[in-house]
Amino acid sequence: MSRTFIFLPTFLITDIRESDTGDVSFLNSDRYELKKLANGQFLCPGFVDLHTHAPQFPNQGLGMGLPLLDWLDKYTFPLEMRYKDENFAKKVYHDVVKSTLKSGTTTACYYGTIHRQSTTHLAKAASQLGQRALVGKVNMNRNSPANLVESTDSSLEDTESFIKDVKAFENPLVEPVITPRFAIACDTKLLRELGDLAAKYNLHVQTHISENVDEIAYTKELFPDAESYAQVYDSAGLLTDKTILGHGVHLTDDEEKLIAKRGSAVAHCPNSNTWLRSGICDVRRLWRNGVKIGLGTDVGAGSVASIIDAMRSALATSTNKSFFSADYQPLTFHEVFYLATLGGAEALGKEKVIGNFEVGKDFDALVVDVEKSQDQTPSTFTYEEHSVLERVQKLIFCGDNRNITDVYVRGRLVSTELII
């Protein structure tokens, strides 16, 4: 007799035994909860969002259609100045983490702002609500509005203090990450010192690369001795096997090979690349060149804080690319599901911990219902005759956060009352 069970100890998945009669027996049963999935439900690995900007959530849907640098000046930088106010930061960041968890993001890579204390509140919100998160205090010491420009020394001092702040939580799920905004906003000295900090504390690095053609041209102007945008980061010690590069829309073959050689990864953000008219990232070429890839929502340039939408957007943009390249094969729904789960885990070097349901990994999981949404109305017109694989397709092409009923991080239920 075949049945599906979620078997949840405090932080581990443990084997269960089922008899031929359908009865379930297990050791120390008082320690566990047994949950049977209802018709229409299936169990899915938690989603990994490799690139999102927590302070920009209030700007979702604003300024779409502007090119990157203009959008930053008109919408992003004025909003980010407000995070000097810790009370404002606390309110926004608590809502951000609730929103991403409800969307099924069990692991998130967050950009904060230059403000150390406010960004610490972002890390604290993730810690309190139970999300697995990498949180970065942004570094900017030039080519930005005056209220967002740090001195090199204060940027480094605040970053190291932030690292210690987050480590003091003693929560293994929440990590500090070195976060130079992009090369335009950081001079050579700051980039190199940040590379040293990443090495000193063995931290992940997150930044942007080759999102927009004007951004690339400006970077070349600022770093005339560098062979490429990627080489700017490499010479500063910022291209490592723990580096996540946002976008990578216009990387050259040589840059992609360098990124692959260093073991760095690219966060593919198809939604924001469309709305800011940045271009279409060639995922298949990145794969051919050996680059690890996962998905990012890139809110607020991305208009939806859901990896379900990122999967759908990745499918749409790759299909659009195929219209102009006869030999280009669009991505499949299997491939974008991989990007959203195990691909993101591999990009972070966490494939031995999360990404799928292999024995011994942490239980980061979603209970998905494509038959009924949370208000019990028909959602994706799924009926009993639809297979599990067809239900996964329906989630990717038709679903949203209303189809996610439960969210677990490391075996702990973190959704329901906190999130709805």
Automatic annotation (TrEMBL):
Gene Ontology terms describing biological process: guanine catabolic process
Protein's pathway: Purine metabolism; guanine degradation; xanthine from guanine: step 1/1
InterPro entries, A to Z: Amidohydro-rel (IPR006680), Guanine_deaminase (IPR014311), Metal-dep_hydrolase_composite (IPR011059), Metal_Hydrolase (IPR032466), Metallo-dep_hydrolases (IPR051607)
Domain Amidohydrolase-related, chain residue ranges per copy: 42-414
Enzyme's top EC category: hydrolase
Cofactor note: Binds 1 zinc ion per subunit.
Keyword Repressor tagged: no
Pfam families assigned: Amidohydro_1 (PF01979)
UniProt-recorded Gene Ontology molecular function terms: guanine deaminase activity; zinc ion binding
UniProt keyword annotations, A-Z: Hydrolase, Metal-binding, Zinc
EC number: 3.5.4.3
Transcription regulation is among the record's keywords: no
SUPFAM superfamilies linked: Metallo-dependent hydrolases
Reaction equation(s) it catalyzes: guanine + H2O + H(+) = xanthine + NH4(+)
Entry GO CC: cytosol
Cofactor list: Zn(2+)
Described function: Catalyzes the hydrolytic deamination of guanine, producing xanthine and ammonia.
Protein family according to the UniProt entry: Belongs to the metallo-dependent hydrolases superfamily. ATZ/TRZ family.
Protein name stated in the entry: Guanine deaminase
